[in-house]
Amino acid sequence: MHGSEGKDGLHSTLEEDPRPKLLPKVMGSLAIVGLMVGLMIGRLTIPGPVELQQVETAADGVVLWFNSEPKLHGEHIDGTLALLFDAQGKAASGQVKVNDRDVNWRIRRTDGGLLLNLVAARPLRGEWKGEEVDDRWRLEVHLQGQ
What we know:
With 146 residues, the protein is α+β, with helices and mostly antiparallel strands. It is 16% helix and 48% strand. It has a domain at 52-145: Immunoglobulin-like, CATH 2.60.40.
């Protein structure tokens, strides 16, 4: 009678393959390379920070120049006008005449970005609009007294 030992190598169970398994290593390497290439492409396509480049006074307000369009939040608070920009820049201040009255403006840095405050002796109302001009963003703030 024939026993279960494999004397001649003709039995039904396969022997262990002595060669290393390369497919998981190749797939893991491809996944890591794909991830790194994706991160590099993503890093190249992120736009730079929005930056305040210049502040000019106009006949009835101020004009602010940015390198690209900033996120903007504006409010009228107790007769003053406050505009918060999600941007970087330097602090500045100045004065502009609106209807022969002085209006003081000041830009300062905050945790949320740059804050522009416009204050006058009498309550102010203001409107602002922005547009792209020569690959820069111009924001015009027009003021009027109440």
